[in-house]
Predict the structure.
Amino acid sequence: MKDYRLRQSPKEDNSDAQRALIDEIEAQINALDETGRLEVKNRLDAILGVKVGSLNLGEELNFMYLQGRALLNTVMGDKAVPANQRSQVFNTIQKQLLDIADASNKVFSQERLKRYEKAFLKVLEQCATDEQKEIFFQLYGEFLANDGGTLEEQ
């Protein structure tokens, strides 16, 4: 296989060469089966050093699903794998999908709550007096400091 490392030179000097190389790599990746493409993604993530803060949870959940499905396809198609092991893989993938759905719902709920909070705070800024805002933010800060407990618990 060819070595696709680019020479270290300014982008302007090799932008056409980079585009041609990227097009060639893309064609080779497209020729891979799903398992091969997942391996390429794993290696790129390792090279790029993906940081937790920059993760797109939706993409990661989709990637987990694709990996599980590729494993399931491999195992289910291999008649040398005993039926009980195929069943175990199937059950594991099914559980993984349920976990992905649960995580997806939690992320959606958290994002929706963030939007509600942001909208509420914008409306409060526009409609409340300065004194009302001060009281609200003091109570709200105490509420959050109490790990979201009720104000009556304070």
